[in-house]
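User: Design a sequence. Structure:
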């Protein structure tokens, strides 16, 4: 009953969000363009619903010579690639806002498992165990507010599986507001390979 309503709600929230945030988005785009060479947006292949690949949009936070298809937390020295504005955008999660476009298009949701990179075979396989790949990936999700980059692959997939079982309007609302709290505190962000 909730799933058809969820798509309609996602579309409305994303549209309102883009309209309300458009002045901020334009300012961010201008800063990125003035600060470093390269495009404003970073595009990357991610795994969507039923493991269909799609192009995700983010504000570019790294130099154009940064490794493209490697999760940042696995880089040995990501700080050397991150731009000055990029450091702030990543810490505040403002770099994720262009994904509102992905939600409007219909290949993402507001709440769901974060979309895996096309080459993160370990995470994709673990999510298969919990049917988490059958959902639209989200701008934020249950695993995001329970550790984000700090979580090992198997633990992240278990949280995604728990979301599959508990998906509801009430649960999505909880995750949405808990995300705001976590973002304000910059919790769970990991830049670079952990020892």
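Assistant: Done.
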């Amino acid at each position: 009953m909730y799933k058809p309503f969820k798509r309609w709600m996602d579309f409305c929230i994303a549209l309102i969000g883009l309209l309300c945030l458009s002045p901020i988005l334009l300012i961010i785009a201008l800063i990125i363009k003035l600060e470093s060479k390269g495009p404003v947006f970073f595009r990357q292949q991610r795994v969507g619903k039923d493991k269909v690949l799609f192009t995700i949009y983010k504000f570019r936070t790294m130099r154009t010579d940064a490794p493209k298809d490697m999760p940042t937390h696995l880089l040995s020295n990501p700080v050397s690639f991150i731009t000055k504005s990029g450091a702030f955008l990543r810490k505040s999660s403002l770099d994720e806002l262009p994904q509102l476009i992905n939600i409007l298009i219909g290949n993402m949701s507001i709440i769901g498992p974060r979309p895996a990179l096309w080459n993160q075979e370990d995470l994709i396989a673990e999510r298969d165990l919990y049917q988490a790949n059958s959902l639209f990936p989200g701008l934020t999700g249950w695993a995001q507010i329970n550790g984000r980059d700090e979580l090992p692959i198997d633990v992240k997939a278990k949280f995604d599986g728990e979301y599959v079982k508990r998906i509801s309007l009430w649960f999505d609302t909880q995750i949405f507001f808990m995300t705001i709290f976590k973002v304000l505190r910059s919790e769970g962000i990991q830049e670079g390979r952990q020892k």
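The beta strands are 41-47, 53-59, 109-111, 138-140. The first strand starts at residue 41 and ends at 47.
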